[in-house]
Amino acid sequence: MTDHRVALVTGGSRGVGRGVATALGAAGWTVYLTGRGSTDPDDPLGRVAADITAAGGRAHAVTCDHVDDDQVAEVFARIRTDESRLDLLVNNVWAAPRGFGGFSDTFWQRPISDWDTLIEVGLRSHYVASVHAAQTMVPQGSGLLVNISSFGSRGHLHSVLYGMSKTALDKMSFDMGHELTGTGVTAISLWLGLIRTELLLSLGMDEFAGFSLERAEDPTFVGRVIDALAADPELGTHNGATLVSAELGAGYGLTNDNGSRPDSHREAFGGGGLFPPEG
Protein backbone atom coordinates (compact mmCIF):
# COMPACT_ATOMS: atom_id res chain seq x y z
CA MET A 1 0.00 0.00 0.00
CA THR A 2 1.16 3.47 -0.80
CA ASP A 3 2.46 5.66 2.04
CA HIS A 4 -0.16 8.22 0.99
CA ARG A 5 -3.25 6.62 2.49
CA VAL A 6 -6.56 8.44 2.24
CA ALA A 7 -9.61 7.66 4.37
CA LEU A 8 -13.14 8.98 4.54
CA VAL A 9 -15.03 8.63 7.83
CA THR A 10 -18.72 9.52 7.63
CA GLY A 11 -20.39 10.87 10.72
CA GLY A 12 -17.04 11.97 12.10
CA SER A 13 -18.00 14.76 14.47
CA ARG A 14 -18.53 12.71 17.63
CA GLY A 15 -18.60 9.25 19.18
CA VAL A 16 -17.27 6.37 17.12
CA GLY A 17 -16.64 8.52 14.06
CA ARG A 18 -14.57 10.99 16.02
CA GLY A 19 -12.52 8.23 17.61
CA VAL A 20 -11.92 6.44 14.31
CA ALA A 21 -10.88 9.65 12.55
CA THR A 22 -8.56 10.57 15.41
CA ALA A 23 -6.89 7.16 15.48
CA LEU A 24 -6.45 7.09 11.70
CA GLY A 25 -4.95 10.57 11.76
CA ALA A 26 -2.48 9.50 14.43
CA ALA A 27 -1.56 6.48 12.29
CA GLY A 28 -0.59 8.67 9.33
CA TRP A 29 -3.73 8.62 7.21
CA THR A 30 -5.03 11.69 5.42
CA VAL A 31 -8.52 11.76 6.88
CA TYR A 32 -11.65 13.32 5.43
CA LEU A 33 -14.58 13.39 7.83
CA THR A 34 -18.15 14.37 7.20
CA GLY A 35 -21.06 15.62 9.25
CA ARG A 36 -23.96 18.01 8.95
CA GLY A 37 -22.31 20.67 11.10
CA SER A 38 -19.99 23.52 10.35
CA THR A 39 -16.31 22.98 9.62
CA ASP A 40 -15.42 25.91 11.88
CA PRO A 41 -12.88 24.81 14.53
CA ASP A 42 -15.30 25.97 17.23
CA ASP A 43 -17.92 23.45 16.08
CA PRO A 44 -17.71 19.66 16.69
CA LEU A 45 -16.95 18.58 13.11
CA GLY A 46 -14.32 21.22 12.51
CA ARG A 47 -12.84 20.67 15.95
CA VAL A 48 -12.07 17.02 15.21
CA ALA A 49 -10.14 17.96 12.07
CA ALA A 50 -8.36 20.76 13.90
CA ASP A 51 -7.36 18.44 16.75
CA ILE A 52 -5.98 15.85 14.32
CA THR A 53 -4.00 18.52 12.50
CA ALA A 54 -2.71 20.01 15.77
CA ALA A 55 -1.44 16.55 16.74
CA GLY A 56 0.60 16.36 13.53
CA GLY A 57 -1.92 14.56 11.32
CA ARG A 58 -3.74 15.57 8.15
CA ALA A 59 -7.51 16.02 8.28
CA HIS A 60 -10.23 17.76 6.32
CA ALA A 61 -13.74 18.36 7.66
CA VAL A 62 -16.47 18.45 5.01
CA THR A 63 -20.07 19.45 5.66
CA CYS A 64 -22.37 16.81 4.19
CA ASP A 65 -25.93 15.70 4.82
CA HIS A 66 -25.82 12.06 3.78
CA VAL A 67 -29.48 11.97 2.78
CA ASP A 68 -28.60 14.38 -0.05
CA ASP A 69 -27.03 12.33 -2.85
CA ASP A 70 -25.65 15.41 -4.58
CA GLN A 71 -23.77 16.46 -1.44
CA VAL A 72 -22.34 12.96 -1.09
CA ALA A 73 -21.20 12.96 -4.71
CA GLU A 74 -19.46 16.28 -4.13
CA VAL A 75 -17.48 14.84 -1.20
CA PHE A 76 -16.10 12.03 -3.32
CA ALA A 77 -15.41 14.36 -6.25
CA ARG A 78 -13.37 16.57 -3.93
CA ILE A 79 -11.35 13.61 -2.65
CA ARG A 80 -10.63 12.45 -6.21
CA THR A 81 -9.55 15.96 -7.20
CA ASP A 82 -7.42 16.62 -4.12
CA GLU A 83 -5.95 13.16 -3.49
CA SER A 84 -6.39 11.13 -6.72
CA ARG A 85 -7.18 8.07 -4.60
CA LEU A 86 -9.24 6.66 -1.74
CA ASP A 87 -8.01 3.74 0.34
CA LEU A 88 -10.60 3.45 3.09
CA LEU A 89 -14.26 4.27 3.60
CA VAL A 90 -15.70 3.96 7.10
CA ASN A 91 -19.48 4.11 6.85
CA ASN A 92 -20.43 5.33 10.29
CA VAL A 93 -23.04 8.07 9.79
CA TRP A 94 -26.19 7.48 11.84
CA ALA A 95 -29.16 9.50 13.04
CA ALA A 96 -31.38 8.85 16.04
CA PRO A 97 -35.13 8.70 15.51
CA ARG A 98 -37.26 11.56 16.76
CA GLY A 99 -37.79 11.40 20.50
CA PHE A 100 -34.95 8.92 20.94
CA GLY A 101 -34.59 7.97 24.58
CA GLY A 102 -33.14 4.50 24.64
CA PHE A 103 -35.61 2.81 22.25
CA SER A 104 -37.94 1.97 25.13
CA ASP A 105 -41.12 1.83 23.01
CA THR A 106 -42.34 -1.08 20.92
CA PHE A 107 -42.44 -0.73 17.14
CA TRP A 108 -46.22 -0.18 17.07
CA GLN A 109 -45.87 2.65 19.56
CA ARG A 110 -43.27 4.47 17.49
CA PRO A 111 -43.95 6.78 14.52
CA ILE A 112 -43.41 5.24 11.11
CA SER A 113 -41.09 8.17 10.40
CA ASP A 114 -38.42 6.31 12.43
CA TRP A 115 -37.73 4.64 9.08
CA ASP A 116 -36.43 7.95 7.73
CA THR A 117 -33.49 7.96 10.12
CA LEU A 118 -32.73 4.34 10.95
CA ILE A 119 -33.07 3.09 7.37
CA GLU A 120 -32.56 6.19 5.20
CA VAL A 121 -29.49 7.36 7.13
CA GLY A 122 -28.38 4.17 8.88
CA LEU A 123 -28.53 1.98 5.77
CA ARG A 124 -29.14 3.78 2.47
CA SER A 125 -26.42 6.37 3.09
CA HIS A 126 -23.90 3.55 3.57
CA TYR A 127 -24.88 2.05 0.23
CA VAL A 128 -24.62 5.38 -1.59
CA ALA A 129 -21.17 6.13 -0.14
CA SER A 130 -19.98 2.61 -0.97
CA VAL A 131 -21.02 3.04 -4.61
CA HIS A 132 -18.95 6.21 -4.90
CA ALA A 133 -16.00 4.72 -3.04
CA ALA A 134 -15.94 1.62 -5.22
CA GLN A 135 -15.91 3.78 -8.34
CA THR A 136 -12.52 5.08 -7.19
CA MET A 137 -11.14 1.98 -5.48
CA VAL A 138 -11.87 -0.61 -8.19
CA PRO A 139 -9.90 1.23 -10.93
CA GLN A 140 -6.96 1.70 -8.55
CA GLY A 141 -7.11 -2.00 -7.62
CA SER A 142 -7.20 -1.59 -3.84
CA GLY A 143 -9.28 -0.31 -0.96
CA LEU A 144 -11.36 -1.23 2.07
CA LEU A 145 -15.05 -0.57 2.73
CA VAL A 146 -16.02 -0.81 6.40
CA ASN A 147 -19.67 -0.73 7.43
CA ILE A 148 -20.13 -0.04 11.13
CA SER A 149 -22.65 -2.58 12.40
CA SER A 150 -23.48 -4.21 15.72
CA PHE A 151 -24.67 -7.30 17.53
CA GLY A 152 -28.17 -6.02 16.83
CA SER A 153 -27.86 -8.24 13.76
CA ARG A 154 -27.66 -11.31 15.98
CA GLY A 155 -30.28 -10.57 18.63
CA HIS A 156 -32.83 -7.94 19.53
CA LEU A 157 -31.14 -4.65 20.34
CA HIS A 158 -32.83 -1.25 20.69
CA SER A 159 -35.64 -1.64 18.14
CA VAL A 160 -37.01 -3.51 15.14
CA LEU A 161 -35.76 -0.92 12.67
CA TYR A 162 -32.34 -0.75 14.33
CA GLY A 163 -31.93 -4.52 13.95
CA MET A 164 -33.20 -4.41 10.38
CA SER A 165 -30.68 -1.75 9.40
CA LYS A 166 -27.71 -3.56 10.95
CA THR A 167 -28.61 -6.96 9.53
CA ALA A 168 -29.05 -5.36 6.11
CA LEU A 169 -25.58 -3.79 6.42
CA ASP A 170 -24.08 -7.22 7.06
CA LYS A 171 -25.82 -8.74 4.05
CA MET A 172 -24.85 -5.71 1.96
CA SER A 173 -21.19 -6.18 2.89
CA PHE A 174 -21.40 -9.87 2.06
CA ASP A 175 -22.89 -9.28 -1.38
CA MET A 176 -20.57 -6.36 -2.12
CA GLY A 177 -17.67 -8.63 -1.23
CA HIS A 178 -18.95 -11.20 -3.72
CA GLU A 179 -19.10 -8.63 -6.53
CA LEU A 180 -15.73 -7.14 -5.55
CA THR A 181 -13.95 -10.48 -5.79
CA GLY A 182 -10.83 -10.13 -7.92
CA THR A 183 -10.80 -6.33 -7.85
CA GLY A 184 -8.40 -5.89 -4.92
CA VAL A 185 -11.12 -4.12 -2.93
CA THR A 186 -12.48 -5.61 0.29
CA ALA A 187 -15.85 -4.98 1.94
CA ILE A 188 -16.55 -5.95 5.56
CA SER A 189 -19.12 -5.34 8.24
CA LEU A 190 -17.76 -4.57 11.71
CA TRP A 191 -19.68 -5.44 14.85
CA LEU A 192 -18.82 -3.06 17.67
CA GLY A 193 -19.45 -3.76 21.31
CA LEU A 194 -20.39 -1.23 23.95
CA ILE A 195 -18.53 2.01 23.19
CA ARG A 196 -17.21 4.36 25.86
CA THR A 197 -18.41 7.55 24.26
CA GLU A 198 -18.16 10.84 26.10
CA LEU A 199 -21.95 10.86 26.46
CA LEU A 200 -22.08 7.40 27.99
CA LEU A 201 -19.21 8.08 30.37
CA SER A 202 -20.86 11.32 31.48
CA LEU A 203 -23.79 9.34 32.89
CA GLY A 204 -21.60 7.99 35.68
CA MET A 205 -22.68 4.36 35.28
CA ASP A 206 -20.55 1.25 35.80
CA GLU A 207 -22.50 -0.78 33.25
CA PHE A 208 -24.94 -0.27 30.42
CA ALA A 209 -27.48 -2.87 29.28
CA GLY A 210 -25.65 -5.42 31.40
CA PHE A 211 -22.21 -4.76 29.92
CA SER A 212 -19.28 -3.36 31.87
CA LEU A 213 -18.09 0.10 30.86
CA GLU A 214 -14.66 -0.80 32.19
CA ARG A 215 -14.43 -3.57 29.57
CA ALA A 216 -16.10 -1.56 26.80
CA GLU A 217 -14.35 -0.17 23.70
CA ASP A 218 -12.83 3.28 23.34
CA PRO A 219 -13.83 4.96 20.06
CA THR A 220 -10.12 5.27 19.26
CA PHE A 221 -9.74 1.52 19.78
CA VAL A 222 -12.15 0.97 16.89
CA GLY A 223 -10.01 3.24 14.73
CA ARG A 224 -6.84 1.34 15.59
CA VAL A 225 -8.57 -1.92 14.71
CA ILE A 226 -9.58 -0.57 11.30
CA ASP A 227 -6.05 0.75 10.69
CA ALA A 228 -4.57 -2.66 11.51
CA LEU A 229 -7.12 -4.44 9.33
CA ALA A 230 -6.38 -2.17 6.37
CA ALA A 231 -2.65 -2.96 6.69
CA ASP A 232 -3.16 -6.71 7.15
CA PRO A 233 -1.61 -8.65 4.26
CA GLU A 234 -4.44 -11.18 4.68
CA LEU A 235 -7.12 -8.50 4.34
CA GLY A 236 -8.58 -10.07 1.22
CA THR A 237 -9.50 -13.26 3.08
CA HIS A 238 -12.07 -11.24 5.03
CA ASN A 239 -13.89 -9.98 1.94
CA GLY A 240 -17.64 -10.03 2.57
CA ALA A 241 -17.26 -11.08 6.20
CA THR A 242 -18.87 -9.79 9.35
CA LEU A 243 -16.12 -9.26 11.94
CA VAL A 244 -16.06 -8.34 15.63
CA SER A 245 -13.97 -5.33 16.58
CA ALA A 246 -12.98 -6.64 20.04
CA GLU A 247 -11.87 -9.97 18.56
CA LEU A 248 -9.89 -8.33 15.77
CA GLY A 249 -8.24 -6.05 18.31
CA ALA A 250 -7.21 -8.99 20.47
CA GLY A 251 -5.74 -10.72 17.42
CA TYR A 252 -3.74 -7.63 16.51
CA GLY A 253 -2.61 -7.09 20.11
CA LEU A 254 -4.48 -3.79 20.44
CA THR A 255 -5.87 -2.27 23.61
CA ASN A 256 -7.93 0.66 24.80
CA ASP A 257 -6.22 3.92 25.64
CA ASN A 258 -5.72 2.72 29.24
CA GLY A 259 -4.25 -0.63 28.21
CA SER A 260 -7.39 -2.71 28.87
CA ARG A 261 -8.71 -5.26 26.38
CA PRO A 262 -12.39 -4.88 25.44
CA ASP A 263 -14.76 -7.81 25.71
CA SER A 264 -16.46 -9.41 22.74
CA HIS A 265 -20.23 -9.64 23.13
CA ARG A 266 -20.57 -12.55 20.71
CA GLU A 267 -21.63 -15.12 23.30
CA ALA A 268 -24.07 -12.74 24.98
CA PHE A 269 -25.92 -12.58 21.67
CA GLY A 270 -26.03 -16.32 21.09
CA GLY A 271 -22.61 -17.05 19.63
CA GLY A 272 -21.85 -17.76 16.01
CA GLY A 273 -21.92 -15.20 13.27
CA LEU A 274 -23.86 -14.29 10.15
CA PHE A 275 -21.57 -13.88 7.16
CA PRO A 276 -20.09 -15.82 5.58
CA PRO A 277 -22.74 -18.48 6.30
CA GLU A 278 -21.48 -21.45 8.28
CA GLY A 279 -21.57 -24.73 6.42
From TrEMBL:
- What is the residue range of the signal peptide feature? none
* Superkingdom to which the source organism belongs: Bacteria
The annotated regions of Gly residues compositional bias extend over 269-279
Q: What segment(s) does the record annotate as region Disordered?
A: 256-279
Extract the Gene3D superfamilies matched here. Answer: NAD(P)-binding Rossmann-like Domain
Q: Which SUPFAM superfamilies match?
A: NAD(P)-binding Rossmann-fold domains
Q: Which is a Pfam family this sequence falls into? A: adh_short
Q: What name does UniProt use for this protein? A: NAD(P)-dependent dehydrogenase, short-chain alcohol dehydrogenase family
List the source organism. Answer: Williamsia maris
